[in-house]
Write a structure and sequence with these properties.
Layout lengths: L1 E5 L2 E8 L4 E5 L10 H7 L4 E6 L16 H14 L6 E5 L1 H12 L6 E5 L15 H4 L2 H11 L1 H16 L8 H11 L4 H13 L12 E6 L4 H13 L3 E6 L6 H4 L1 H15 L3
Parallel strand pairs: 3-4, 3-5, 5-6, 6-7, 7-8
Antiparallel strand pairs: 1-2, 2-4
Helix pairs in contact: 1-11, 2-3, 5-6, 5-8
InterPro entries: AB_hydrolase_1, AB_hydrolase_fold, AB_hydrolase_sf
EC number: 3.8.1.5
Enzyme class: hydrolase
């Protein structure tokens, strides 16, 4: 892996292959390894770039006392500038999909294309009355859970709270994929876990009106219904959107159905003529 110096830390990234740039942004409490099935598939024809977002993986903690999706997007911009990439195709998973959406909101026509896996616009995935979010924040309870049980058990509790309405296979239908996700959580400290959660919870959906970047939204059939609804909203809001739902897949759809996901992404890239 390579590293990029930030004002308050170091961002780790990896670049594999040559060709048009595909940039992958992972989900919350994960790392760049979440995209390994895509790296192996696309590196023959593309310059594939993965990164570990602040607080995650080898990047780990930074000195920022507060994380935001805006800050994560700033880091993505720094990386693109460092690598001299002007027209990327961006792929985001879960939290990473928020980062990609924020980038599209800032630059409606700069990216060649965007792929949003497990796409979510807000957490919780439902519209709340204006100004009410701070009063409904579960952060105090989360902080208590983190101090008593640690990141892995707290992450499991978050999954259980979602599984109560969607079923036990919400995160992934594959036990090996779920185990890998839990192992990635072990790399996240208590303080970083909280900062990541607060970045997700505080984020208000980006305005995608007028975004002309071709956008592909992909969900698993076991995805939470409210999240699927947000995916439909994304497709209806952008000028050039398309959406797939794959059966036998959960939130981590790119890992549950790697062949189908890669095929759909490859067809999308061919359609928008990335090369």
């Amino acid at each position: 892996m390579a590293e990029l110096s930030l004002d308050d830390g170091t961002l780790w990234y990896e670049r594999t292959g040559e060709g048009p740039p595909l940039v992958f942004v992972h989900g919350g409490w994960m790392n760049g390894q979440a995209w390994q099935p895509q790296v192996e598939h696309f590196a023959e024809d593309y310059q594939v770039i993965t990164l570990d977002v602040r607080g995650h993986g080898r990047t780990g903690p930074t000195d920022a006392t507060r994380y935001t999706i805006d800050l994560f997007t700033d880091d993505l911009e720094r990386l693109l500038s460092h690598l001299e990439i002007e027209r990327p195709t961006l792929c985001g998973l879960s939290l990473g999909s928020m980062v990609v959406q924020e980038y599209l909101s800032r630059y409606p026509d700069r990216a060649t294309g965007a792929v949003l896996a497990g796409a979510v616009r807000s957490m919780p995935p439902v519209d709340l009355p204006s100004g009410m979010k701070p009063f409904l924040s579960p952060t105090p309870a989360l902080a208590t859970a983190l101090s008593l049980t640690g990141p892995r058990t707290t992450f499991r509790s978050l999954l259980v709270s979602i599984q109560g309405t969607t079923g036990e296979q919400w995160l992934s239908v594959d036990p090996a994929v779920r185990a890998q996700a839990l192992e990635a959580v072990d790399d996240v400290s208590r303080s970083e876990f909280r900062k990541i959660f607060e970045a997700l919870f505080r984020y208000d959906p980006s305005d995608l009106t007028g975004v002309s970047t071709p956008t592909l939204v992909v969900h698993g059939e076991q995805e939470a219904p409210l999240v699927k609804g947000q995916g439909e909203a994304i497709v209806s809001e952008v000028d050039n959107g398309q959406r797939f739902t794959f059966d036998n897949a959960g939130h981590l759809v790119n890992q549950d159905r790697p062949v189908a996901f890669n095929d759909a992404t490859g067809a999308f890239l061919d359609r928008i003529d990335v090369a």
